[in-house]
């Protein structure tokens, strides 16, 4: 058992860290947050310099952590442009893989994953968007809410209802690739989010949107399973986002403590205890995240460890950001820590709230069946 990263990943981490410090300046991070603008430029540079490399999942995990450590909004925006791609990779047809994967893997196209609806996100099986078969096409009607990249995506993978549920509500759901330039597809950008304002979030409205039947991903009625499989992958990447946020706040607290010492101020025990606790939780989060990733990347994912990593890293990000503001006080509130504090909260919400993760952990331990995002 080796707890250290291999040398090639240590070298990749150095390169990513250097890129993050050079390209994600605090001035830019402040600007993208204030303007609620998607940082296309950083994403393009990250692709060009090989920082974003989906062929190397360990490097991707570390890139997410390191970019979010520099700035969560820009870091997430730059790395989330293939959100949902695993659904096509795992369950798509050869034609879909040939058509869509090169576009997103090269950075030429942006995609998203649309599951959540205005009625709620955790209860996936309760979704109302319908896809009705008409000849060799499906007609999609409904709306999706809080969809990352919704307004800038070229296409989204969408979960819809294709038949009325039988005794099991999660039956009768199917996934489709829906190009955003189809007639009847409307995306309204959502502004004024608490955090991650550099990411693009939209409400999607679909009115009689026609897609060819060949746009269905996998088999009809199996969509719920595909999306749950996807969440068991994406939650690990969210844990890496959360790790980056927690580590980024700790970096800034350490700088603050150095400034205190330099000016002869006493660093009291409360501050020391808080730093020790945050640092310990970060270490524990990283071990859980890397363990979950290690299982996944060896094609034997463990949903229990994945949910533990996601929930614990998310709570650590929120805890670390709160402690950072307590320690730094007014100076922190007027620094980028204010943004980290706002950005941290979403970690406990998307890809399954902390409550849902805990239900999954208990379900796995007690081996019960159930549904839920
Ligand atoms: C910025 C942003 C980006 C997002 N991006 C995407 C995206 O790209 N694609 C997408 O599909 N969705 C996206 N989402 C939606 C996100 O996944 C949902 O917000 C999340 O799943 C929670 O759903 P909800 O907000 O509707 O809360 P609800 O499901 O209504 O839950 C409300 C509260 O009730 C609790 N709760 C719910 N069910 C249970 C239960 N059974 N037991 C105990 N407690 C429960 C929850 O934990 C939560 O605290 C995004 C959201 C945001 C804010």
Automatic annotation (TrEMBL):
Flavoprotein listed as a keyword: yes
Assigned keywords, A-Z: FAD, Flavoprotein, Oxidoreductase
Domain Acyl-CoA oxidase/dehydrogenase middle: 113-209
Domain Acyl-CoA dehydrogenase/oxidase N-terminal, chain residue ranges per copy: 7-107
Cofactor list: FAD
Annotated GO MF terms: acyl-CoA dehydrogenase activity; flavin adenine dinucleotide binding
InterPro entries: Acyl-CoA_DH_CS, Acyl-CoA_Oxase/DH_mid-dom, Acyl-CoA_Oxase/DH_mid-dom_sf, AcylCo_DH-like_C, AcylCo_DH/oxidase_C, AcylCoA_DH/ox_N, AcylCoA_DH/ox_N_sf, AcylCoA_DH/oxidase_NM_dom_sf
Gene3D superfamilies: Acyl-CoA dehydrogenase/oxidase, N-terminal domain, Butyryl-CoA Dehydrogenase, subunit A, domain 2, Butyryl-CoA Dehydrogenase, subunit A, domain 3
Recorded superkingdom: Archaea
Every Acyl-CoA dehydrogenase/oxidase C-terminal domain range: 221-364
Record flagged with keyword Cell inner membrane: no
Protein family membership: Belongs to the acyl-CoA dehydrogenase family.
Name this protein carries in UniProt: Acyl-CoA/acyl-ACP dehydrogenase
Organism, as annotated: Oxyplasma meridianum
